[in-house]
């Protein structure tokens, strides 16, 4: 079993899609180890997306990610990282496959409904960014 870290982004929470997305998480066979609602601070968003700080969209992305509440979750499944990325689809919803979460619920390439870790190592780091070990159901 592996873990991944996901965010239901401000657009999806604002558009009242979080329940539908959590339903999908469960029906696709992920186990939820931890889940909470929070609003990212400016410094949290900048640190979380630091890998993109040289990219032209970095400032707008951080502004968007702090624009309203998000839900953060740690999920467990076989091949959790890839399984979640397959389920969410391409970064740009216009390019996302039918029935993927981004195709169904994203607004744009920036406001694209959900985040998913891109490797097992990053999943561990991202989970630790938001959850203490004792916050997770083992
Ligand atoms: P995420 O990391 O959120 O799961 P991803 O791995 O598909 O998404 P990344 O390349 O890591 O995509 O980009 C991180 C986030 O930055 C994207 O999800 C999106 O919100 C935003 N982003 C990426 N590329 C662009 C772009 N060209 N214009 C605007 N926003 C972008
Ligand atoms: Mg990414």
What do you see in this structure?
The protein has 138 residues and is of the alpha+beta class. The protein has a single domain (2-135), classed as Alpha-Beta Plaits. The protein has 7 helices and 4 strands; from the N terminus they run βααβααβααβα. A 4-stranded antiparallel beta sheet has the order 2-3-1-4. The longest helix is centred in the last third of the chain and has 11 residues, at 120-130. The mean pLDDT is 98. Adenosine-5'-triphosphate (ATP) is lined by residues 52, 57, 61, 91, 109-110, 112, 115-116, 118.
Given helix and strand content, the structural type is alpha+beta
Q: What's the story with the biggest beta sheet?
A: 4 strands, antiparallel
* Ligands bound to this protein structure: adenosine-5'-triphosphate, magnesium ion
Number of helices: 7
Q: Label the CATH architecture.
A: 2-Layer Sandwich
Average pLDDT figure = 98
Low-confidence stretches: none
What is the CATH third-level topology name? Answer: Alpha-Beta Plaits
Q: How are the strands ordered across the major sheet?
A: 2-3-1-4
Helix content: 25-40%
Question: Would you report the number of β strands?
Answer: 4
Strand content: 15-25%
CATH class: Alpha Beta
Cα-atom radius of gyration: 14 Å
Count of spatially separate domains: 1
Task: Give the topology.
Elements: E1 2-8, H1 10-14, H2 18-27, E2 31-38, H3 42-48, H4 58-65, E3 70-77, H5 80-88, H6 101-105, E4 114-116, H7 120-130
Antiparallel strand pairs: 1-3, 1-4, 2-3
The structure holds adenosine-5'-triphosphate (ATP) and magnesium ion.
